[in-house]
From TrEMBL:
Keyword Transferase: no
Domain HPt, residue spans: 53-111
Protein name from the UniProt record: HPt domain-containing protein
Any GO BP annotation: phosphorelay signal transduction system
Length: 130
């Protein structure tokens, strides 16, 4: 249930050290991975709408969880994991899905904002090297 969800895990919205490890420190690759994350999440987050059937909804939460883990967005991954777990316990009400949808959307907005900051940081670093 949404009442038992953590408000926010401790730590960064996106773990940059994890992202750098996953991309071998290659900024171009990191930018590509972040762009793919944005595209994938935009597509899958539509399936997290409360009107979606529970099984499909849970599958969407699972997919976003995996994508979030890939870039080090631990709070988003944790939240999607809780949503997925709830969906596996049986049919969810629209209100239950709405609660998760609202929390996931809020966290997702924070991740997208952090991605913009990371992209800006990489762009500035690229200008310094030029």
């Amino acid at each position: 249930m949404m009442d038992s969800l953590p408000l926010h895990l401790q730590g960064p919205v996106v773990d940059r050290a994890h992202l750098e490890r996953m991309t071998g420190g290659d900024q171009d690759l990191a930018l590509e991975v972040l762009g793919l994350f944005r595209e994938q999440v935009e597509l899958w987050s539509r399936l997290l709408h409360p009107s979606t059937e529970t099984e499909d909804w849970g599958n969407a939460a699972h997919t976003v969880k995996g994508s979030a883990r890939g870039i080090g967005a631990w709070p988003l991954a944790e939240l999607c994991g809780l949503a997925e777990q709830a969906s596996r316990q049986g049919p969810m009400s629209r209100d239950e899905k709405q609660g998760f949808y609202d929390a996931i959307t809020t966290e997702l907005q924070a991740v997208i904002g952090e991605i913009a900051v990371i992209e800006h940081h990489y762009a500035l670093a690229g200008l310094r090297q030029a």
